[in-house]
Amino acid sequence: MSARLRRVLGAVVVSVGLVGSAAGCGVDGTPVVAGGVNPGGSSTGDVSSTADPTRVHELVLDAAVFPAGYTAQVVPSDQMQQMMDMVLASTKSADVSPSHCMQLSAIPSSVNVNDIGLVIATKGGVSSLAESVIVTASSIDEYRAQVSGDCEHLTMDMTVEGQSVKATAEQKVVAGPTTRADDTLVVEMTTVSRVGSQSITQRVIVGYAQVAGYTLSVQASSMDPSGTPDRAGFDDVFTKAIDKAVDEA
């Protein structure tokens, strides 16, 4: 299995498994971006919010505030756009069970990466932490419903780069750190995707919060299939990301 296919599989499976209305993005630890990228939005789903989509880039954390040992990575926008388009195409064509856990029709065919504030940091080849900021009309309650109940276990069949992929995703809502946001959601997820006789396991922690019409997403992932995400690092970044949004949004 090629390294490129492994990276794409990781992005696709995580985006499919976490949120049905998701637009997933990224390579090796970039975050899953929940909800549509809309010109407005709020934590109650009210699209009349005054949130400004042009501010998403200034609301993400500065690279210097990530935990010690992490180094910010710059992903060229054209590379990110190519990956985004590939993930969206694979996600929209996926066969997901239970089917009600995912609204394929709600997934856009294209998302402009310039509408996403994004920062990615890695710690050697061990772990990654990332934050994204978007404007969305979806609520935390909608996200919570899509990872709870019978949606905690998903099976997926999809085609990625011309190859048939079968995957399973186990996800559960867990307690998150105390923050200044009115409502947050933290999800632990383990996915196993199989291509022929080969398989890839990916473990992630993803947190969502909504502040002033912006949705913040923080993701911690292990870059080693046998490893676990950096929970302490996740809690630190998630709390700081919310503090910045509360103070500056």
Description:
The protein is of the alpha+beta class. Helix content is 24%, strand content 33%. It has five helices and eleven strands, in the order αββαβαβββαβββββα. It has helices at 3-18, 56-59, 77-92, 140-145, 231-248, and strands spanning 23-24, 32-33, 71-73, 95-97, 117-123, 127-135, 153-160, 163-174, 184-195, 198-211, 214-222. The strands form two sheets. Strands 3-5-6-11-10-9-8-7-4 form a nine-stranded antiparallel sheet, with helices on both faces. Strands 1-2 form a two-stranded antiparallel sheet. A hairpin with a 7-residue loop joins strand 1 (23-24) and strand 2. The protein starts with a helix and ends with a helix. Residues 17-48 have low confidence and may be disordered.
Evaluate the radius of gyration. 16 Å
**Strand composition percent:** 25-35%
Shape: globular
Q: Number of helical segments?
A: 5
Protein topology:
Elements: H1 3-18, E1 23-24, E2 32-33, H2 56-59, E3 71-73, H3 77-92, E4 95-97, E5 117-123, E6 127-135, H4 140-145, E7 153-160, E8 163-174, E9 184-195, E10 198-211, E11 214-222, H5 231-248
Antiparallel strand pairs: 1-2, 3-5, 4-7, 5-6, 6-11, 7-8, 8-9, 9-10, 10-11
Helix pairs in contact: 1-3
Feature tags:
single chain, alpha+beta, nine-stranded antiparallel sheet, two-stranded antiparallel ribbon, 5 helices
Concise account of the structure shown:
The chain is α+β, with helices and mostly antiparallel strands and 249 residues long. 24% of the residues lie in helices and 33% in strands.
